[in-house]
Specification:
single chain, Rossmann fold
């Protein structure tokens, strides 16, 4: 028998040195407590993943759960801004402590580690992926629910999150334009490739409510996201409207003051899992 080269592609199935593929999942900090972990994803940018992530975190916190938000959108972080959280984050030799929002939501983002929050992050993909992994392995999370605000698309960071963080499921965010079918299908196919359960779909920017008569105005059309969800046998968890008050509070870092309950049905589903 020839000497093993450790390249299993060159040997037969009966070779005794063949090894099963090793899991790439990482363990969180041994002193951390993390319950369920959900990724908030989309096949493209600009659909409001961070807004859905933030509102979902606020909703679950109001229901009495301890909640954390891992901001995996390293080059475009917005989570600290909407929660009014400022760094620098503190830590020890063994762990990094998440920052806390006004209601006690734990937050970790690259903006909490930069000298100035407006400094651009000009890093290559592997470095960004490594930072996101450290937000999982090194941060002292203590939460019942951890929401991972993913970057847009299906690139390096998304792949790194899917492979290294043990997600209990993902929530796909879409907007009601004609592109919705393609956006949803990209996210669905990636989740299927990585064997990650899909909780359902949230449609953002669904409509605007007329301030005079209260009628719902569907600026981008109606029904496209529901059709895409049905095509993939997924539930449409919620339809979030465009609300100027939500935008105003987010800009002021006071998203926890917003009283909308659009994601109540999505929260019901997560509590039932």
């Amino acid at each position: 028998m020839s000497e093993c080269t450790h390249d299993c592609s060159t040997c037969g199935e009966s070779c005794g040195s063949r090894q099963e593929p090793q899991s790439l999942l990482k363990e969180h900090n041994p002193n951390a407590h993390v319950g369920k972990v959900y990724g908030i994803v989309s096949g493209k940018g600009g659909v409001g993943k961070s807004m859905v992530t933030s509102q979902l975190a606020v909703t679950m916190r109001r229901r009495g759960h301890s909640v954390g938000v891992l901001d995996a959108d390293v080059t475009g972080p917005s989570i600290p801004k909407v929660f009014g959280v400022r760094g620098p984050a503190t830590g020890t030799e063994d762990a990094l402590n998440p920052c806390l929002s006004s209601t006690g939501i734990e937050v970790m983002s690259v903006n909490l580690l930069l000298e100035n929050e407006t400094d651009p992050v000009v890093w290559r993909g592997p470095v960004i992926s490594g930072v996101v992994q450290q937000f999982w392995t090194d941060v002292l999370w203590n939460c019942d629910y951890l929401f991972v605000d993913m970057p847009p698309g299906t690139g390096d960071v998304s792949l790194s999150v899917f492979q290294s963080i043990p997600l209990d499921g993902i929530i796909i965010v879409a907007s009601p334009q004609e592109l919705v079918s393609m956006v949803v299908e990209k996210a669905v196919k990636m989740a299927e490739m990585m064997d990650i359960p899909i909780v359902g779909i949230v449609e953002n920017m669904s409509y605007i409510t007329c301030p005079d008569c209260g009628k719902k105005l569907y600026l981008f059309g109606e029904g496209k996201t529901r059709e895409a969800a049905a095509r993939h046998c997924l539930p449409l968890l919620a339809q979030m409207p465009i609300d100027p008050k939500l935008a105003e509070l987010s800009d002021a870092g006071r998203i926890e003051d917003f009283q909308g309950d659009w994601l109540a049905s999505a929260a019901d589903v997560l509590e039932g899992k």
